[in-house]
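Work Package 4 report. The design task specified in the project plan requires that, given a folded chain encoded as structure tokens, an amino acid be chosen for each position. We show below one input record used in the internal validation round.
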């Protein structure tokens, strides 16, 4: 598998190789991931159930960490302890990046709101910051995915590899953009089909709520809550399967970029 991984490929070839890898290893994925994936799905469905929805985020987090640990092990074949450490470090990094973005937005809002002469421009300033964040997300988001895949596969530290990996990903930004464009179109089409039952139920719930506001009787059965929760759980299970397909594609994109970098250094 490693020999086939490190090979120069186009974005379309990475999608093809990732799809082949996913189909060839689907049974192994199901055997290793079905229990944590089921826990994530049930915990997500609990978001809609009264009296238990308040613990649902914690359950999703715990089940998600468990599943991520199993996913990491599938691609790097390390033990659970090593992969749990990797997952927790990536989770901490994600929290820090989100906290930094929120702190910058809060600082801009506080700066403009505290100065009376600047108060009328607060919304414009926040809009400008939001656009800046979107631009940064587009430019650095794709290389960040490369860094995550590299961190999953290799035995490296975040501190030493974060910026070098981002720089490496930036050099191949065009290839990553085409890859995400292709996979995004494929996943969007499949997701729309998978989400159709949930969309129909959401529309039915919305119409029922509008009827109640107008004084009509409730048009949904008492079991609708459980039907909605089960639909959310099943939809989440399908989404997790699609995510595994995407990670398989990203796995070969990582291998292609590493091979191209090795060839570049050898010249």
């Amino acid at each position: 598998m490693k020999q086939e991984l490190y090979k120069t490929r186009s974005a379309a070839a990475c999608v093809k190789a990732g799809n082949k890898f996913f189909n060839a290893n689907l049974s192994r994925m199901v055997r290793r991931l079905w229990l944590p994936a089921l826990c994530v799905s049930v915990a997500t469905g609990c978001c809609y159930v009264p009296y238990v929805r308040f613990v649902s985020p914690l359950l999703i987090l715990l089940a998600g960490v468990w599943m991520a640990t199993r996913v990491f092990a599938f691609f790097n074949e390390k033990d659970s302890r090593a992969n749990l450490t990797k997952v927790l470090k990536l989770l901490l990094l994600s929290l820090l990046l989100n906290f930094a973005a929120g702190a910058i937005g809060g600082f801009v809002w506080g700066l403009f709101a505290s100065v009376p002469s600047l108060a009328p421009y607060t919304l414009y300033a926040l809009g400008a910051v939001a656009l800046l964040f979107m631009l940064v997300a587009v430019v650095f988001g794709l290389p960040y995915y490369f860094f995550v895949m590299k961190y999953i596969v290799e035995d490296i530290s975040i501190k030493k590899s974060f910026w070098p990996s981002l720089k490496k990903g930036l050099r191949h930004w065009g290839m990553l953009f085409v890859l995400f464009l292709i996979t995004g179109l494929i996943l969007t089409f499949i997701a729309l089909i998978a989400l159709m039952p949930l969309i129909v139920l959401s529309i039915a719930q919305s119409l029922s709520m509008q009827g109640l506001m107008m004084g009509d009787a409730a048009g949904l059965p008492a079991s609708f809550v459980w039907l909605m929760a089960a639909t959310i759980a099943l939809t989440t299970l399908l989404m997790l399967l699609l995510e595994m397909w995407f990670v398989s594609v990203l796995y070969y994109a990582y291998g292609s970029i590493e091979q191209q970098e090795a060839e570049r250094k050898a010249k």
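The radius of gyration is 22 Å. Validation will be extended to a larger panel in the next phase.
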